[in-house]
């Protein structure tokens, strides 16, 4: 250790890994540990984390409800971009990390800590996301990543360490877990163990936020979502806060089997991994946002957004939320959303989401121009010159080259 650590803020869930990390930090660094537990909609009771931290001698414990900030300041801006990593993944885990990192640094500054710590392993993306966030917000912060330092290289060793130091272990943590789970208000993901072979279909017990499409209702459900400047503000005519709105869409999408994804993705650290994701509300919201943009965005503006989207999604996936290039792209995206207001009607049925209606006071759709009946606004003869000008380079090339 290059320099002594006096106080460290640990991103703490209260589970086996971070509880062992808490005690390991105390033993290894002989420092005071401050715990920070973020409620971002994971759906778990968080007060047991407080009791466990107190039992382990922690004096400063932060448990904070960040659900509204998470959806308003992180999920919604990302959805304005229609961001999909590798064309499919709605980035549910990725988008939560910068918020946790941001609040962790704020707490470190508040309590005078000189270090922060997380429980991400040395194989995954989250270590990168957390630490890029830390360094972007506080360049001189010391980061302690136990999985890259200690010799507790297996679950058995973690359990042995916990028992040796009288750290309570939940019964389902004794032995090998069937898979690893991460959840928040936007999604729930499952990776590892029974999911490691990408040829084997996930068992139904892997899913917890959606019913199987085959078991979804036999009658379609319609939902209307109202947008204002690119963000959803109401569901079926009821105005809701960002977190409440996403919660409502999760309920609607989940009961109709919407939002399941089985994906082999390319991690930033270089390996491929298989993840099973459930993003019911996000899937519905994404479809609705694309639909309202279809009638409110200029063609070239929409196409430019689509060209930039993969780059934006990659930045979020790789942990560059606080990077200047992501902020520059966000400014462009937000500018494009000024007139993206109106209402979309969707039809949900057995895992599918279809747009069946859209309207907007800012609509660029002109029935007068597209009608197949006689009109007074479009002279079809104008198309001849348009086509000839666009064909000129093709005709010249063919004439010159035969």
Walkthrough of the structure:
The longest helix has 20 residues, at 299-318. This protein folds into two domains: 7-67 and 93-177, Rossmann fold, CATH 3.40.50.620; 181-297 and 339-359, Argininosuccinate synthetase, chain A, domain 2, CATH 3.90.1260.10. The strands form three sheets. The chain has a five-stranded parallel β-sheet, sandwiched between helices. The protein is elongated, with a radius of gyration of 25 Å. The model has no long low-confidence stretch (mean pLDDT 94). It has helices at 16-29, 47-55, 67-80, 97-111, 126-137, 155-164, 242-255, 280-296, 299-318, 324-336, 367-370, 382-401, and strands at residues 7-11, 32-39, 61-65, 115-117, 142-144, 180-183, 188-191, 221-228, 231-235, 238-239, 260-266, 272-278, 342-349, 352-359. The protein is of the alpha/beta class and 402 residues long. It starts with 6 loop residues before the first strand and ends with a helix. A hairpin with a 2-residue loop joins strand 9 (231-235) and strand 10. The protein contains twelve helices and 14 strands. Helices cover 40% and strands 19% of the residues. Helix 7 (242-255) crosses helix 8 (280-296).
